[in-house]
Amino acid sequence: MSQTAAPRPRVLSGIQPDFSLHLGSYLGALRNWVRDQDRFENYFCIVDLHALTQHPDPERLRSLTLELAAMYIACGLDPERCEIFVQSHVPAHTQLCWILETLTPMGWLDRMTQFKARSQAQGRERINTGVFTYPVLQAADILLYDADFVPVGEDQRQHIELCRDLANRLNSQRGDVFKVPEALISKVGARVMGLDTPDEKMSKSIAAERAGHAVLLLDPPDVVRRKVARATTDNEPAVRNPAGAGVANLLEIYGALHEVSAAAALEVFEGKSYSVLKSAVAEAIVDALTPIQARYAGIRADEERLTSVLAESAARVHLVADATLRRVQEAVGLR
Ligand code: TYM
Prior knowledge:
- There is one protein chain.
- This protein has 14 helices and 5 strands.
- It has helices at about 25-35, 50, 60-75, 90-100, 105-110, 115-120, 130-145, 155-175, 205-210, 220-230, 245-260, 260-270, 275-300, 305-330; strands at about 10-15, 40-45, 80-85, 150, 180-185.
- About 55% of the residues lie in helices and about 5% in strands.
- The protein has a 3-stranded parallel sheet with strand order 1-2-3. The protein has a two-stranded parallel ribbon with strand order 4-5.
- Helix 4 (about 90-100) crosses helix 7 (about 130-145), helix 4 packs parallel to helix 14 (about 305-330) and helix 11 (about 245-260) crosses helix 13.
- It is mainly alpha-helical.
- The structure holds ligand 1.
- Ligand 1 binds near residues 191 and 192.
């Protein structure tokens, strides 16, 4: 008797093309998407509209968008099994965003920690409105595709909560319009800290200013080794339990790359010198990055194929997104 396979749950996630990809985004997000691509129906977006909030140089935005698309594939996302598309190629994202904005109280957005941090840094009067409404566009990205799960790093938990609140708000007013998604945050690697500042999350904006902050996925092996060797630790003679912040971060990276918990990594290194730990971490990173970099070079050598993967995927996801948009438009009285 033939059996129809149960439909797989759907995931949607995205990364901004605002800087070269670093190890934090790889361990917190992309690597998990790759590992789980057979479990899910996969939608992965390059969120160029979000990156616009940082006023990038136009040529740089175009080039980082292609770099990131190539990186998705080089890290192991298979275009045969995953939709890989550019957010701005699908107009429904901004159309749904507007409708959701009319449902979003300013107070909800005011509470977002990422907005608070950026408005403190740039000044509330000067910061662009896109930074404020950023999480609403993110909610539109997710809700358009009826995603069951959103695989992200820990820093995105609050944005996914806001997305759920928005979905529940419209559902309670107008019936079941949206599927309410859940964040999928892995146990290891969900919050990789800066190599030079282990009390701060590894971030693209800091990496743009200080090279020693982050390992980039395109860093050659000698650069990886140098950055890890210079990572901030403390003055203890050897790895101890509990480990200080810098050592704990290195153990977390080691654990994430070897698919073991940070506690298990600590057992491996307890009592050993920091140089032993650092060499092991650097080699684990180099081993992970070498095949990615080789595939990346191959993908960039055939730009035509890369752009056609993006165009074909956009054409397919367009239909899914438009169907949801129509449903929402009808629910709110626009049709
Ligand atoms: P972005 O580009 O800032 O981050 C991309 C992904 O990388 C994860 N991440 C980290 N994980 C662990 N340790 C770190 N140091 C680290 N730094 C970054 C982030 O949690 C994220 O998963 N707002 C999103 C982009 C977005 C999106 C979406 C995500 C737009 N629309 C829809 C999911 C669904 C972001 O922060 O991108």
